[in-house]
Amino acid sequence: MRRNATLDALRGYALVCIMLNHIPAGWARQFTLTNFAIYDAAELFVLLSGFLVGLVWVKVEAQSGRRAAQWRFLRRAGQVWLALVAGGVALALTSRGLFALDLGHTAIWSEYARWIVELPLAYVTALAVMWMQPNLLDVLALYVVLLAAAPAVVPLLLRWPLAFAAGSVALWMVAGPLNALLPNQREGNGLLFNPFAWQMLFFSGVAMGAFRHRFMPILRRHAGVLTTLAAGVTLYSLGMAVLWRFGPEGKRLADAMWHAVGVVDKWSLDLVRYTAIMAASWLVAVPLAPLMAWIAASAPGRALATIGRGGLVSFIACVLLSVVGDALGSNLGGAGTAHRAAVDLWVIAALWLVAEVWLNRRRGPVARACDRLPQATVGTVRKHSFQNGLK
């Protein structure tokens, strides 16, 4: 399947935002998504993940049948689960190493560093059965649950989309009590990211990816109205996020806007946050599509796309670099903006490098050289390489 550069860049942007948001002393965190909208990178990551599931599912099912699609995503759920366990171990060991170097940090709970040494088997078991989800990795635990459900649930969505949507909303409405039934180390039980609620955003993304060719021509007939509504919701979300910075008058207006929508809870996928991310999705996909394509084609956009294509490796790297960046940014007394900005740039560059190395791990020297040649010459180089037995 041909890669979509804009989607890859958005996924990379979501991972960079997740990383920077968890570096308390960071400078660049003031420019992440959460500063300009009522939702944040978690919603963006989950929605894009669902969208890509929808894209891939219909492609695989059309080529190889439904059973192949089901097995593909069941295997993917297993891969994400392994990444959750391995990432939890790596997170604890990283924290332990930083403490050994006298580099304190607050991005994650300090007990992980103790448990991995004093109670390693219990710690790994708690990760494996998902009784514990270390902070920064908790959205990955949500992803495991949603992907594991996909083989059984996506066929229902594809066959009865309207009934599925009604059921998804009904499940979201009773998500709180259901989540509390899940055994967990957290007080009150349940996953931090309530899977019974966040399924609505994830499967909205699946539907968008699977049905885009069917519903987009219909929606485009009403593009003017939809764009106006989406812009209104987005501006309201922007006002809630930024007006408090503009003096007492701005704060009073922001408070009134927040009061009008009530309590906005991230962990149970609040309707306000859901509406805001869906409105932004329309703006990005339709009126702002040319701008997004231009950004994705720029040098920063290509770097973000590389991070986005890194998948689980990029996610685990972004979590580990959050902790390292927190330690580096918080332990030099009197460090100013330049130091904090340098740490932010370093972790972003490191995240890009990890993704770049991972993506090119199986590429030979000729393949890498082709990337640097004009497109017209690539076929000739590959032909001669094949004839000479090169790989």
UniProtKB/TrEMBL annotation:
The keyword Cell inner membrane does not apply. The keyword Cell membrane does not apply. The chain crosses the membrane at residues 12-30, 36-58, 79-100, 139-172, 192-211, 223-244, 274-297, 309-329, 341-359. Keywords: Membrane, Transmembrane, Transmembrane helix. InterPro entries: UCP028704_OpgC (IPR014550). It comes from the Bacteria. It holds the Pfam family OpgC_C. PANTHER family: BLL4819 PROTEIN. This is OpgC domain-containing protein. It comes from Paracoccus sanguinis.
